[in-house]
Every structure is written in C-alpha cells, then in structure tokens.
Amino acid sequence: MSGALATALRVVWQLRHDPRSVVMLLLLPTILLLLFRYVFDHQPEVFARVGPQMLALFPFILMFLITSVTMVRERTSGTLERLLTTPLPRGGLIGGYALAFSLVALVQSAISLAVGQWALDLGLDRPWEGLVFAILGSVVGTALGLLASAFARTEFQAVQFMPLAIIPQILVCGLLVPVDQMPDVLRWLSVVMPLTYATDAFTSLAAGETSGERVTDLLVLIAFAIGSVALASLTLRRRTP
What we know:
Layout: H1 2-16, H2 19-39, H3 44-76, H4 79-84, H5 90-119, H6 127-149, H7 155-165, H8 167-172, H9 184-191, H10 194-206, H11 215-235
Keywords: Antibiotic resistance, Cell membrane, Membrane, Transmembrane, Transmembrane helix, Transport
Family: Belongs to the ABC-2 integral membrane protein family.
Main location: membrane
C-alpha cells in the first residue's frame, strides 16, 4: 500500500509541473458539456435527455486517453522499467497510477457535476450520487486506459485504441437510441460495456428513480474498475521490447 501511495504522489507531483494538462484534465469535460448545451439551445428536451449522460461520457473518454498516453510515455522514457527493478509489486505500481488519476477524476467530476446541476439545470435528483457515479465512470475510463497502454508501443498507438475501446460504447450505451429500442444483438453488446451502466445511472438520477434502481450500475462499474486494473497489472511487462 505504501508503494502505491508513493507512486500516486509522484504522478500527482509531476502533474503540478504541467499546468496546461491540469487545466485540460479538470475543465475540459465541463467546457464540452457547456458546448453541448448550446448546440441544443433550441431543443432543450434533447439536452434534458442526453445532458445527464454527458456527465459520465466526457470524463470517461478524457481519462481513458490521458491515462493510456501517460502510461506509454512512462514506459518509453524508461520510468516504468526503473520502477519495476524495485521491490514494488506490479499491482502496487498500477494501483498507484490508478489512485493518482482517480484523485484527478474526483476534482474533475465535482466541477462538471456542479456546473451541470446548478448552471445548466440538469435536475439530478441526488447530486451526491451523481458525484459517485461520475467518479466511478472516470475511474473505469482510467482503468481501461491502463489496460490499453499495456498493448501499445507508442503514444500514437495508445490513441488508436480509442476507436476500438470507446466508440462502440458510445454507440450502444443508450446515448443515441435508448438501449431497449436497439436490436437484440446491440442490447446484448451493451450489457458488457461499462459506459452503458454509467450513462444509465445518470438517466435514472435525472428521472428521479430511487437509489435501489442504481445498485446494479454501481456494482458493475466497481467490478469493471477492479477487473481492468487487475488485468493491467498482469499484462505489465518487466522489459520494454
């Protein structure tokens, strides 16, 4: 645990020296949400349906990209190999990166949720639950980014994983068409996509449903986050090819 905390502190300290990246990480989801609101300025009913889902979608995508690219950069610079020569276990190393980016996700999600709830009037029934699901969505994006980075040799390859890992989830998560109106094969596909559960939770919050309706979403997102981090640690190579 101490090794994971030390790794997390190192990553956070590195981010402090890159203020432009910090601003992008913290504010870009909110900026995109505001832009999306004005795209549908004359169709408020459309934004009322999809706006809450954006609170899960934008942080998920951004954390996936930032995490995957950062991990590949750590590998190509030799930082990962140096860390792996220490007694720190692979799980602790990956856990440290996950913890660092989860802290970023906490601040990022709080900002975007506050703007969405009180400036854009998304009308979430329980904003604090929205914060939990926004953070979970960001953490799952982070975990998937860690996993994707294990299979990328360069930063460009890491970016190329987005069409494979993210776009299919956007198409079947219920953002464009409600899941229950999709063909059977797409509904089955949506079941194994974590973004489906993140967007479903926000749809449920906007509809004023009880917390019990979101228990499955909560458990599945936690399982995806833990599973992705575990797989990333198993695929972490001791030596860069």
